[in-house]
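Intended use. Records like the one below are meant for learning the mapping from a protein sequence to its folded structure. Do not use them to infer anything beyond what is encoded.
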Amino acid sequence: MEREKISENTEGLSTLCVTARELISIHDYEKCESLICNAMGKYPHAPEPHNLIGILLEKKGDHLMAMKHFRAAWALDPTYIPARQNLDCYGTFYSNGKCAYDESDCEVEEKAGKQSNYKVEYDAHGVGRFVRRD
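Structure written out for the chain above:
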């Protein structure tokens, strides 16, 4: 029963990422915002809705609130790579504008031969954290 619920949540969040990407690309910001806000209520402990609302706010020009949502996504799951990538991307004075909607947008770094500056370390309780590589 629990595995089915987790699988359903994962599928719902993946669909949310795809739908949000499409709505943002056609500049349907109101519908996208409504969809993401509903997902925040449905999945309160998931980083994906916060990451997506951060991207939406960045596209609308609200940089400060976008960064707050990227940090919220990072705090909810420190191993969620898209939130880290968006913090790195938009946390500079000269953003390259390439945002990460989901994990598939982060694989480009690895395929291009670039090694991430971060690695995942797990504590005694199995909680993963990203730490900078030396």
